[in-house]
Amino acid sequence: MSHAAAAAALLLLAFISAHAEDPYLYFTWTVTYGIISPFGVPQQAIMINNQFPGPVINCTSNNNIVVNVFNQLDEPFLLSWNGIQQRKNSWQDGMPGTNCPIPPGQNFTYHWQPKDQIGSFYYYPSVGMQKAVGGYGPIRVHSRLLIPVPFDPPADEFDVLISDWYGIGHKALAGLLDSGRHLTRARGVLINGAGSAKPGDAPLFFLEAGKVYRFRACNVGLKASLNFRIQGHSLKLVEIDGSHTVQNVYDSLDIHAGQCYSVLVTADQPPRDYYLVASTRFQKTVQTATAIIRYSGSSVPATPDLPPAPTTWAWSLNQWRSFRWNLTASAARPNPQGSYHYGQINITRTIKLASSTSIVDGKLRFALNGVSHTDPTVPVKLAEYFGINGTVFKYNLITDEPPATGTPVTIAPNVITAEFRTFIEIILENPEQSVQSYHLNGYSFFPTGMGPGNWTPESRKTYNLLDAVSRHTIQVYPSSWTAIMLTFDNAGMWNLRSEIWDRRYLGQQLYISVLSPERSLRDEYNMPVNALRCGAITNLPLPPPYS
Fold first, then answer.
1. Which ranges carry the Plastocyanin-like domain (predicted)?
2. How far is Cα 504 from Cα 498, in angstroms, rounded to an integer?
């Protein structure tokens, strides 16, 4: 090898070693109470750095995200990262089942990576009913520069956080639920923390004629499914919950609780103001919020005629059936998304989960397969890690089939086990008369089918086994079922929950323990040195580390 070639090789090695670790992004967040008045009445909200919604995390696949959270509330606090898979790292998931909460006046530093992920996500408070009064904000995960994206870079990107809003403090809402009552209709709908725009209000976003913009819309609310639309403009769907989609064009999109959609909007209309609209679905009384989008240089106000919303859940189901995974697009890694042929993998286990509504000791409870989850004083992940799980919870109180009708409901930590790297089908059955929505932490799954009535093995004949959109949150329509499939290849403790927040709060959730038999760092990280401790593990010695 010549001196020049050797020098070049050394330079290349030095470059690789200097760039071996992915870039770091640092955030310092102070969580406080603040006062907002979205409907003209002052109300306490949870703010992050005095912002509601909170600051955006604008990052790229595999970036190291370091968030130092200072809790200045008068109660414990946790943040979770909706849709971020936390590969091998449920320690950073920020759930009551994985993390001790941050005590008042203290701080905790999260460190996580959106490993091999792209798309639109959000963070939110996971303790109690805190999410009802804010503490949430957007997360954007961009593709790395060398990874092709199936659309041209937009002129700008806009985060749109839509939600129902109860206008009641989170402690009062929790007290109402604890007393045995349930949430009724919300006070209204918010768009980025504000109620409906009034004439003369400042625009939320500015557009330049002829340019294309990306809107990342997430439903961060407590219960309501919301229809999202923009007056006079079409929505080209490009991403759902972190997956590129076939780019169909829609007039409006139903976004159910916990879901995120990305659309491209072309500013191809006469320059003026236009309304961005979010309105409730499946309610007797429709509630609507608007925000103003302004073409630059225009002073013409928006027309008051809002685009109509769809009215039936059959419309919504048919829209879901039109969504397709983009099999020709690259994912976060340089391989086609469609190279994962989920429809050709043998199912090793089918879990049917049915929700129920019960009165237990005179109070309302929601359950999955007859168990209504309650959080113990030690997070179930930490109890498992320190080997005291036998005194904190019992695995597999439920079976893979719903119990017979009328079986008494048990209130207890609901933790099931899934064998590492097995391919499992989960059937979500909704016997209720309202739309439900479910989220699974730690994973994306393939929603392969939906249908009315009860699921049977014959229902598999209706599955989409080719190009269902891989995602983390899925709706289940009234008196209907939804089927999802996934490989449980992410070791950790993962929350499967109702995104209908009163149902979640009163027990409609569980945790799935996925343990690697190897106890290897290849499969799961060790508990971080800064992990907070609480309850019975406070003074226990650390177990042997993974190696």
1. 31-144, 160-298, 378-518
2. 5
* Alpha carbon distances (Å) from 353 to 67, 368, 420, 441, 492: 35, 6, 20, 16, 21
Q: Dump pLDDT digits (tens) for 520-546.
A: 999 999 999 999 999 999 999 999 999
pTM over 0.85: yes
Which of 93, 91, 165 is closest to 123 using CA atoms?
93
Q: Which residues contact 307 (CB under 8 A, 6 or more apart)?
A: 229, 231, 232, 251, 252, 277
Asked if 436 and 475 touch (Cβ cutoff 8 Å), the reply is: yes
The residue ranking higher by pLDDT, 39 or 1, is 39
List beta partners, residue 457: none
Predicted local confidence at residue 184, as pLDDT:
85
Query: Is pLDDT above 70 for 15?
Result: no
Q: What whole-number distance in Å separates Cα of residue 407 and Cα of residue 88?
A: 37
Q: Nearest-CA neighbor of 384 among 524, 196, 198?
A: 524
Give the Cα separation of 296 and 213 in Å (integer): 14
- Cβ atoms of 279 and 289 within 8 Å: the answer is yes
- The residues facing 156 across adjacent strands are 213
DSSP E strands: which ranges in 304-384? 349-360, 363-368, 371-372
